[in-house]
Amino acid sequence: MTDKATLNAEWDRQLEAMINSPLNRPTMIAKGNPERLQVYYGFAKLTPKVMRKHELVIIYENVNHNPMKNLQWIIRKMHLVYIRQQTKEEISDANHGNRAFTKYGYFIDEYPWCSNINMVLEHNFVADDKHVSSSERELIRIMLREKYFESYDTKPCHQTALIFH
To answer: Which residues 6+ apart lie within 8 Å of 29 measured at CB?
Structure first.
């Protein structure tokens, strides 16, 4: 499968690049600037009272006035796994929003996923096919699978559902 040291190095490299990028300075930028809008992939951080369910979270930036504050908010809310740039089609959707972020989530323990992380990752893989290259989608899927077991202290289960072809 995948070497964990390689994945950890990739996570560290992405976070370091995001923090040290000259584009990420606290300046006022026009809404929907195509060079700076990001998509964040990760898992929700569990709290004792509010967030109790395992969730795969995909967050799209709609505005990017202060990238460092955005990144701090993202890291506070989720276990960050992967960051990518938005495509032009995704940015056009951001121009019509009235919020700073758009969040999409998969509750992993609920129907129809029933705690099957592979089904969730496959659905996310197919959902991204119009905007992300196949190699990048595969990298996202591998990194999310590795980080899921690390984030929620679960062990891999080989089959939790019957799949008919």
So the answer is: 36, 64, 65
- Alpha carbons 135 and 6: distance in angstroms, whole number: 16
Between CA 38 and CA 30 the distance in angstroms is 15
Mean pLDDT, consecutive 10-residue stretches, the chain (165 aa), reads 72 73 52 68 87 89 82 90 89 79 90 88 92 92 90 70 63
Long-range contacts of 117-120 (CB under 8 A, 24+ apart): 117/145, 117/148, 118/145, 119/161, 120/56
Unique residue bearing structure tokens 């989720």: 78
For residues 156 and 44, what is the distance between their CA atoms, to the nearest angstrom?
A: 19
| pTM for this prediction | 0.75
86 secondary structure, DSSP code: P
Residue 138 has phi, psi (to 5 degrees) of -65, -40
**What single string gives the DSSP state of each residue in 90-147?**
HHHHHTT-SSSEEEEEEETTSTTTTT-HHHHHHHHHHHTTTTS-HHHHHHHHHHHHHH
Contact at 8 Å (CB) between 77 and 51?
A: no
